[in-house]
């Protein structure tokens, strides 16, 4: 999970009083599964866990989280964990988990302090929308995505035909969630979820995920040995949490198992397409289109057809009106001095995966790049002179050679790099904003 959005950057950005697309039509949600069990309520969708776990969409929750984190030290008591398991066993069995499955799953279950450390150390560093998008569509991610599209083209073609979701959009979700299957997470699911459920900070949420995880094991879709995921319990190529998996995953290759962990990503990618379809994906409609907005434009709220937006002077970056794909909202994620987009219904469908404008822009933009589209044309009010991708690698190398704790020289500016930059800035008497600027690179080179 290391590269998924849960640990990814906290995106803060000014939305300038823009009402995004209308609330999602939830009528597409099934009321109950064929076996009669209830489909989880809206509060259990893929989007919600991310809303819970990223502070980007719930900034108000943050201070309280931190308070809790400080108040409760990481427990290392296995005795308490074992007691909790004994109590949980009864609750799990009451919900239909067989004793055999439960005991096998918990035979070697371990409290995993690392999970709690990760849970409590989610970055506080705010990343801006431009940094987030730079990372989401960084050159290696575009290149790897195009390779993945070529390698899995027959499967992705069939998925596109079956579900009507562009294969590049599915690939972009894959890229952001697990870097095309290279970072799916290797935490044993039972350990991670039991630790989080026992820890109690969001105990009831994770207990529900854990019970669902046991149902997945009971269904035979996956063996305990292969049942791995992120520290926060997101699984496989496209990082479904157990309740989303239970409700939406599909067996695309027809082998009788919904295998989202396999080296063959077919089931996982089809599950993602099925999920987007289920939440109202409109075939043939783009997620959004970058536009130019005239300076004097007044209120920008509401939804209009692109031809109506064109009458207000809102046109594509090529100067021509955007095609009437459907009604659109104007999104200016960094305010009036930044890039602007007309976003369609499909934008809000992507947000069902992760309820964040930054995430949906990341998926949308990366999918455009995978189709061969250009970088975002509009300016961003960065307040600093940005670095090229290669210069970011150079910046990271210089920081690392000076002893700052950096895991990777990968040109992606995440929380670790920002912290290192800020530490360096402090030592150099600069303002510690953590920004990867030309200024910082110059200072690093001169020392
Ligand atoms: Ca399968």
Q: How would you summarize the topology of this molecule?
A:
Blueprint: E1 10-12, H1 46-53, H2 61-71, H3 78-94, H4 99-106, H5 113-120, E2 126-128, H6 129-136, H7 139-151, H8 153-163, H9 167-178, E3 187-188, H10 189-199, H11 203-219, E4 228-229, H12 242-248, H13 266-278, E5 288-292, E6 303-304, H14 306-311, E7 315-316, E8 328-331, E9 340-343, H15 345-350, H16 357-370, H17 389-401, H18 415-427, H19 438-445
Parallel strand pairs: 1-2
Antiparallel strand pairs: 3-4, 5-7, 5-9, 6-8, 8-9
Helix pairs in contact: 6-16, 7-9, 8-13, 9-13, 9-16, 10-11, 17-19
The protein binds calcium ion (CA).
Describe the structure.
- By secondary structure, the protein is of the alpha+beta class.
- The longest helix is centred in the first third of the chain and has 17 residues.
- The strands form three sheets. Strands 6-8-9-5-7 form a five-stranded antiparallel sheet. A two-stranded parallel sheet has the order 1-2.
- Strand 8 and strand 9 form a beta hairpin.
- The protein has a domain of 58 residues.
- The chain is built from 19 helices and nine strands.
- The chain is globular and about 65 Å long.
- It binds calcium ion (CA).
**Beta content:** 5-15%
Bound molecules: calcium ion
Number of strands: 9
Termini, distance in Å? 36 Å
The poorly predicted ranges are 1-45, 47-73
H/E series: EHHHHHEHHHHEHHEHHEEHEEEHHHHH
């Amino acid at each position: 999970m290391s590269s998924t959005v849960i640990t990814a950057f906290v995106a803060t950005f000014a939305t300038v009083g823009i009402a995004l697309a209308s609330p999602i039509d939830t009528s597409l949600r099934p009321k109950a599964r064929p076996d009669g069990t209830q489909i989880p309520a809206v509060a259990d969708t893929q989007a919600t866990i991310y809303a819970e776990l990223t502070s980007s969409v719930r900034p108000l929750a943050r201070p309280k989280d931190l308070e809790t984190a400080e108040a409760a030290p990481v427990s290392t008591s296995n005795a308490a964990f074992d007691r909790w398991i004994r109590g949980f066993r009864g609750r799990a069995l009451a919900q239909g988990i067989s004793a055999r499955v439960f005991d096998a799953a918990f035979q070697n279950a371990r409290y995993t302090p690392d999970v709690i450390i990760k849970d409590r150390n989610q970055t506080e560093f705010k990343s801006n929308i431009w940094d987030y998008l730079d990372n989401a569509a960084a050159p290696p991610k575009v290149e790897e995505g195009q390779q993945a599209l070529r390698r899995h083209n027959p499967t992705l073609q069939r998925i596109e035909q079956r579900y009507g979701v562009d294969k590049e959009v599915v690939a972009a979700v894959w890229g952001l969630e697990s870097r095309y299957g290279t970072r799916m997470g290797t935490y044993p699911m039972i350990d991670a979820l039991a630790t989080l459920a026992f820890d109690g900070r969001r105990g009831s949420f994770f207990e529900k995920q854990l019970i669902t995880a046991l149902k997945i094991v009971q269904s035979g879709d996956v063996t305990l040995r292969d049942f791995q995921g992120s520290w926060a319990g997101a699984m496989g190529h496209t990082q479904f949490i157990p309740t989303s998996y239970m409700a939406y995953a599909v067996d695309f290759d027809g082998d009788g198992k919904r295998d989202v962990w396999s080296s063959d990503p077919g089931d996982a990618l089809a599950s993602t397409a099925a999920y987007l379809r289920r939440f109202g994906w409109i075939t043939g409609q783009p997620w959004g289109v970058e536009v130019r907005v005239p300076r004097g434009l007044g209120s920008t709220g509401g939804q209009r057809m692109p031809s109506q937006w064109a009458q207000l002077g809102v046109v594509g970056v090529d100067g021509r009106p955007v095609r009437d794909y459907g009604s659109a909202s104007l999104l200016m994620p960094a305010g009036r001095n930044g890039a602007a987009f007309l976003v369609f219904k499909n934008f809000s469908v992507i947000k069902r995966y992760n309820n964040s404008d930054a995430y949906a822009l990341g998926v949308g933009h990366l999918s455009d790049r995978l189709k061969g589209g250009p970088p975002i044309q509009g300016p961003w009010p960065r307040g600093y002179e940005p670095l090229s991708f290669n210069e970011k690698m150079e910046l990271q190398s210089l920081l690392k050679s000076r002893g700052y704790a950096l895991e990777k020289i990968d040109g992606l500016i995440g929380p670790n790099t920002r912290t290192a930059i800020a530490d360096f800035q402090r030592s150099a008497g600069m303002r510690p904003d953590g920004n990867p600027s030309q200024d910082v690179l110059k200072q690093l080179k001169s020392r």
